[in-house]
Amino acid sequence: MRRLSAQYAFITAFLKGQEARCLSAEQLDEAVSRQTVNDMLEVLGTTDIGEYLAGEKIEDFTGAERLLWRYLSKCIERLKQFNPPADISAVINIHTAKYDILNIKIALRKALTGDENASFIPLGHMAGKEVLEELAGAASLLETADTVRRFSGLLPYASILNAVKEKDERSSLDGELALEARYTEERRSAFASVGDGAALLAASELLVDLANLQVLFRSVIRQRSTIIPESFLKGGRVVSVGELREFLTLNPSEIAARLERTPYNAIGREIVKEFQKEKDVTAVDSVIGREKLRLLKGILSPLLFSPAAVLWYLFVKEAEAANLRMIFKALFDGIPPAGIRTNLVAP
Fold it and tell me: Is the pLDDT of residue 307 over 80?
């Protein structure tokens, strides 16, 4: 049986050990209060990420960010070293592919704006230095598509790139939306085919809902009069695309009221509360970022001997890296702790 296999036993033992070595809410709160990088690293103590960063010479934010990407890559590689069962490998591969989609989007925006300083993410199937350099140096979307096409699992995304018109803002936006829709469907298909697929599908549908609510609240707050229909992803769990389009005619408080009988009631209330206080649209991103981890935890973390446990581990590690990225940014830019404390997310 799958649940009694030695591979699942080894991976489960590893994940439980890692759980005990994650950053706690107390450590995060203490870390954000420290005034220097070395003092902050001391707070991380014997956590896994703390031991990885210990002894590293971190002189600027770019260096810190590079180390955090390397840490996430190491976390993924450690899972692969267990030679995991096919269903766990499928979950790791589709989750990792989201970074390829992000890099393809970055290449699209670079082609549109001509930004030579575009920064690519060193994660995903295209994470090799030479490949990322090719993406950065591509003179056209055709060259970008040729690079993407070399990876068999990314062929559909290369086809999407081929349909985008050079230097056309609307076509570029359509391309980004098509990339996200394709990835969402591939993630759903991958999750449906593995053990504990119901929980994984619930997580995928939750991610769709949250992405759509993020687009919705940002659009309403910015009072954008039009939004193209494809901006909302299909496949959500609670809020349909039709309801989302209807919500575009409402104000944030009215939307929050409509969400009261859903699992997203806290999201609506908190967005309204924080935006009224800060008058900053990034309140939407902060609230959804915090609630996403809480809601995913309820779906994924109770399941042991399961691909769901691996997916939860990956989300936790990404949250740790994101937290430290904000703390490093605050330290190097002289941002007071109050400026980022509410954005930190403890699992």
Answer: yes
The model's confidence at residue 344, banded by pLDDT at 50, 70 and 90, is: confident
Residue type, 15: L
Q: Are 203 and 241 in contact (CB under 8 A)?
A: no
- Say how far apart CA 235 and CA 203 lie, in whole Å: 11
Separation of alpha carbons 63 and 124, rounded Å: 20
Full 3-state SS string of 181-243? HHHHHHHHHHHHCCCCHHHHHHHHHHHHHHHHHHHHHHHHHCCCCCCCHHHCCCCCCCCCHHH
pLDDT for residue 226:
59
The full length of the chain comes to 347
Q: Where are the alpha helices (DSSP H) in 114-168?
A: 129-137, 141-149, 155-162
Structure tokens at 88: 């766990």
Tokens 């902060």 map to which residue? 286
Percentage of the chain surpassing pLDDT 70?
97
Contact 8, 320 (CB under 8 A): no
214 residue type, one letter: Q
Q: Where along the chain do its domains lie?
A: 197-302
CA 314 to chain centre: 10
In whole angstroms, give the CA distance from residue 88 to residue 195. Answer: 9
Q: What digits encode the pLDDT tens for the residues 188-198?
A: 999 999 988 99
Residue type, position 210, single letter = L
- For the domain spanning 197-302, the CATH number is 1.20.1690
CA neighbor of 91 nearest in space, from 151, 16, 8, 172: 8
Q: Return the beta strands (E) in 1-57 as ranges.
A: none
Which residue in this structure is represented by tokens 């605050």? 330
**Closest C-alpha among 76, 100, 101 to residue 88:** 76
Looking at residue 83, what DSSP letter applies?
Answer: -
Q: What is the spatial distance between Cα 246 and Cα 296, in angstroms, rounded to a whole number?
A: 27
